[in-house]
UniProtKB/TrEMBL annotation:
Cellular component, GO, one term: cytoplasm
Organism listed in the record: Monodon monoceros
The keyword Repeat is assigned to this record: yes
Keyword Repeat: yes
Domain of life: Eukaryota
The name this protein goes by in its record: Melanoma antigen preferentially expressed in tumors-like
PANTHER family cross-referenced by the UniProt entry: PRAME FAMILY MEMBER 11-RELATED (PTHR14224:SF19), SIMILAR TO PREFERENTIALLY EXPRESSED ANTIGEN IN MELANOMA-LIKE 3 (PTHR14224)
Family affiliation: Belongs to the PRAME family.
GO biological process assignments: negative regulation of apoptotic process; negative regulation of cell differentiation; negative regulation of DNA-templated transcription; positive regulation of cell population proliferation
Source lineage: Eukaryota, Metazoa, Chordata, Craniata, Vertebrata
Keywords: Leucine-rich repeat, Repeat
Length: 472
């Protein structure tokens, strides 16, 4: 049964009861636990503010997943719930029945409502329904702050009314309410507003940070100390940071930024798109990593030979499962650097992206041997590079023994193009037939995908839709 349609008889009884909110409030102490969720839904969608306020004070579960009911936040119903939390935290001791410690405003919790209001009502989650630990006294429970979880997507120049109201409410109750979020996403917002919002958030709750802004390096340096306080961050994504020539002041900004990684003791995934400020000083960031990474992406920027050398020597990349160097021109780098890097990660690497790296035959041949040692490799993309048919055959032979390799994306062989780099359909068909024959001779069932770049219909920086070559 749908989460929005409790059993019909129960729904009719609940609606009848909610016509007199005073009656609802008077029976909450005696209401069976399993009736709280369906009655709460009716009160929420019926905007029965007084009933909502009272039900929050008597909520018999640790967590109230309110966000699972809010398609669009309604200020009146939210205010009623927060008023209920106010009464709760103001009391010396919580009501005997109430176990509420977490108000969850994220778009999660649909399973909770579905299980309690549909056919699976008795198969509820032990996490959502867990009582407060037995060993904690009621005094300790009443002193512990209520935690409010939200999703923070800062993407407007000004804060929306919902976020503004919530921030103000938390600010007035900072001793008794903690505002937390697991994932912080910043797309566009003045730094002043970002600082205001984050000053009210428990920064050590944040586990993922995504910054996709056209910031100057100085702006990122202003944000960096806040990042350092997010010491539980496991995943950090950064893109589109604008930087001019690295003068002395800019170098100071780089130090301010990279030094914060010393405080990120749980960092596992690091993704940096167009981090032009790292050219020539990647080692400063690598030295500040304190834990082994699972995934590393540094894309669409320039890296020097010394950067690549430091990367291959960094002890915290030796357990990488994913490596993405797409858009980094490797044509002019020393040919031994990439093979050394791949040997470093060969034992654990599962995904490798080397798209649009300017790789040609001579470069690819240097990595064939270390590539054949990547026994865990499952995904490999080499799109956007210029490879001949002869070297493509060598590549397929060297990777044919990789037992887990199941997704392979390769460029159209260079023989498929005219001297003006125009794709010739007839030549492409011939190359496809030759590639199929290579797969047949190798004798292992396999699917490879090839695509041209640039795409004739989409522009210089996109790939055509990949076409499979299947040998079964």
């Amino acid at each position: 049964m749908s989460v929005w349609n409790p059993l019909r008889l129960l729904g009719l009884a609940g609606m009848s009861l909610l016509r007199d909110e005073t009656s609802v409030i008077s029976i909450l102490e005696y209401l069976p636990t399993e009736l709280f969720p369906p009655l709460f839904i009716l009160a929420f969608y019926g905007r029965h503010s007084e009933a909502l306020k009272a039900m929050v004070q008597a909520w018999p579960f640790v967590r109230l997943p309110l966000g699972g009911l809010m398609q669009t936040p309604h200020r009146g119903t939210l205010r009623a719930v927060l008023d209920g939390v106010d009464v709760l935290v103001a009391q010396q001791g919580h009501p005997r029945r109430c176990k509420l410690r977490v108000l969850d405003l994220r778009h999660t919790g649909q399973d909770f409502w579905r299980k309690w209001c549909g056919d699976g009502a008795h198969g509820y989650s032990s996490t959502l329904m867990a009582p407060v630990a037995e060993h904690r006294s009621r005094a300790e429970q009443s002193l512990a702050p209520v935690v409010v979880f939200i999703e923070l997507h800062l993407k407007e120049r000004t804060m929306d009314r919902f976020l503004t109201y919530l921030i103000r409410w938390v600010e007035e109750r900072k001793a008794s309410v903690h505002l937390c979020c697991k994932k912080l996403k910043i797309l566009s917002m003045p730094m002043e507003n970002i600082m205001k919002v984050l000053s009210r958030v428990q920064l050590d709750c944040i586990q993922e940070v995504q910054v996709n802004c056209t910031w100057h390096l100085s702006t990122l340096a202003t944000f960096a100390p806040l990042l350092g306080q997010m010491n539980k961050v496991q995943r950090f994504l950064l893109s589109h940071i604008h930087v001019s020539a690295l003068e002395e002041q800019e170098q100071q900004h780089v130090v301010q930024i990279t030094s914060q990684f010393l405080r990120l003791h749980h960092l596992r995934d690091l993704c940096m798109e167009s981090p032009s400020f790292l050219e020539g000083c990647l080692d400063e960031m690598l030295r500040c990593l304190t834990t082994p990474l699972d995934n590393l992406a540094i894309t669409h920027c320039l890296l020097s030979d010394s950067d690549l050398s430091h990367l291959s020597q960094c002890p915290n990349i030796s357990q990488l499962k994913g490596l993405d160097l797409s858009g980094i021109t490797l044509t002019y780098s020393s040919p031994e650097l990439l093979p050394v890097l791949l040997e470093k990660v060969a034992a654990t690497l599962q995904e490798l992206y080397l798209e649009q790296c300017g790789i040609m035959d001579s470069h690819l041949e240097t990595i064939l041997q270390p590539l054949s040692h990547c026994s865990q490799l499952m995904f490999f993309s080499l799109r956007g590079n210029l490879i001949s048919m002869a070297v493509m055959e060598k590549l397929l032979r060297h990777t044919s023994g990789l037992p887990s390799l199941s997704q392979e994306l390769y460029p159209v062989p260079q023989e498929s193009y005219s001297s003006q780099r125009i794709l010739q359909p007839g030549r492409l068909a011939q190359c496809r037939a030759e590639l199929f024959e290579i797969l047949r001779v190798l004798g292992r069932p396999r699917i490879i995908w090839i695509s041209s770049s640039p795409c004739l219909h989409c522009g210089d920086n996109t790939f055509s839709h990949p076409q499979p070559i299947i040998y079964r």
